[in-house]
Amino acid sequence: xxNLVIVESPTKAKTLTKILDNTKVxxxxxxxxELNDKWLTREQREEGWPVQGVDxxxxxxxxxxxxxxxxxKDIKSAAKKADKIFIATDPDREGEGIxxxxxxxxxxSGVPEKKIKRSTFHEITEIAxxxxxxxxxxxxxxxxxxxIARRILDRIAGFIVSKKLNSFLRLSPLSAGRVQxxxxxxxxxxxxxxxxxxxxxxxxxxxxxxxxxxxxxxxxFKIPGISEKDFKINNSDEALEIExxxxxxxxxxxxxxxxxxxxxxxxxxxxxxxxxxxxxxLSMSPSRTMxxxxxxxxxxxxxxxxxxxxxxxxxxxSNEAMKDIQKNIINSYGKNYFEKRIYSAKVxxxxxxHEAIRPTSISRTPDSMxxxxxxxxxxxxxxxxxxxxxSQMPNSITEKTTLITSxxxxxxxxxxxSEADKLVFDGYKxxxxxxxxxxxxxDLNENEKVELVDLEKEQRFTRGPGRYSQASLIxxxxxxxxxxxxxxxxTISLLTxxxxxxxxxxxxxxxxxxxxVSNSLNYYFLNNFMDFNFTKKMEDDLDKISNGQLNxxxxxxxxxxxxxxxxxxxxxxxxxxxxxxYNRKALSNFLGLTTEMLPYNLIPTTxxxxxxxxxxxxxxxxxxxxxxxxxxxATEKEIIRETDKNNGDFLMRAIRNxxxxxxxxxxxxxxxxxxxxxxxxxxxxxxxEYALDKLKESINxxx
Length: 703
Description:
Layout: E1 3-7, H1 10-19, E2 23-27, E3 33-35, H2 42-47, E4 62-64, H3 69-81, E5 84-87, H4 93-108, E6 116-118, H5 126-134, H6 141-169, H7 180-196, E7 201-211, E8 214-222, H8 236-246, E9 251-263, H9 271-282, H10 286-298, H11 319-333, H12 366-369, H13 375-390, E10 396-406, E11 415-425, E12 449-461, H14 470-480, H15 488-497, E13 501-504, E14 507-510, H16 512-525, H17 532-546, H18 552-574, H19 584-590, E15 603-608, E16 616-617, H20 636-646, E17 651-656, E18 663-669, E19 672-677, H21 685-700
């Protein structure tokens, strides 16, 4: 008897081949069917097809992807010889969709349905795979419906809205989508908050005191006549006045308070938390994290998989895994380092049947795998192993000491606060290292006199909201229900590739084009997919379809019909004779914006090029360097000034390539055209430094 196992990944196929005896394993190499993108025929339009690839009943019109004929031929040939066929694609909607297409292919080629089984496993180990094959069932059609619904939604939004957006902004290629567009809105909304924030000045006063041959630092938090709640030093004059008064008084310890605090471990990783932690701790992008996690899941060098399936929103652990973790902790660290913990999902509609991302074998410690894995694989595996094991360890306990140093015990004194933490029991922190600094304050009691040895004033300004990092953007997407674990990383990558956002020093900046796209879509589709609650409901409805609780055709039809009115209005506006989206003031007024939009093509940067000085920042008059603020756009006054000054407009401009939508920098010096990488303007660090060096080199070559 021979078995045929069909998966979607060649690496996964290689691993399963080594695990399974008397079994042929083939790979589809991903999706081999895609929605048809040919122009609709007249007959199809008359029937009411809404868009290419979607018929009048909102069913998909599939076509074979280019280059898949040999794959299909091999699968059909092997299926005819096999006694049993197991479809073992990934255990999520995408995997179920591929599995469904495999089944349809086999049935159409004459393979009896009774020979075809669906095998799902969340880890590629011999035990898990064989158990899954023994308990194989059939394709989960509600999950397939959800897969199809998502594809149709994305096709409708992508093809219909994107084309109208191209016309509206007179620029292509542009794209819109039910996940990417509200995610972009998160970024541009944050940019608006940053731009609207007005920093307020305040001053801090810190002191150094001396007692018992030891020095300790403290922060002023109260002054006479003002409550702690209302305390604020507004300017340098106030700071100087307070400083002079402090120098005239004596200080002693008003109170010493010692408290214990505990900190609990985090739950095992979900897709979202893995991407966030990997970004924060390893400086890996979400897409890079998922790529390496895929390698660990599928197995390295043909060995069985090292981690469970990496697309999950559940933090739960199986009973078997928890027993293995308990054994490892007790053997390695002792009984006092084990504490059984049960975790449940905090996000809505989490698939609790799935497990968290964990090692498939706790006995495979990071140290034992160091020579097997490459550097990035090892770092990510170590991160996952440590988090999984630490999740079953006790709280860490910290002793916090607070000293209040005062010129008077009553409310009329100048009061300073000193705080120090001491780690009493490390608990889970034995595995999860933190940046916390532990130190001790002098052993001083109430009423002990101390000597003031130094005072320092510091001007500060209130800080507004920061830009999202890729990690915090994913966290926000998860919180408000935009997308699902399988789409977080790809959504951010798409926005970056479209140059709607730039990732600079791990911060996500909205680009001028991103602003134009986001504000335009927000104007027309605010009550549709640009509404976070609307988008969340769509994700919830897709989950209902997965569970057989909602009809796919009605769901997709309702979404299509909800787009008709705003799309019609968008088309009508963009067809007006005097419509000119490049008129920034007119477009801003039309969209109801309080501030004027920046140009989104032929963008005038603040980099001036000339033969005398290769690259000058027009706002500083100094040579443009990698430390200058990125994405700064020259104002109309600055453009006129520099044009008049230099007998021609030599400002570098950011220009969008019509083919791939990427920006590049260009300018002219006399009859010579100068080009540069966009990183010279929209970057930081080494990449920007290199781009600026190449730009300056190009200009110097003209001399």
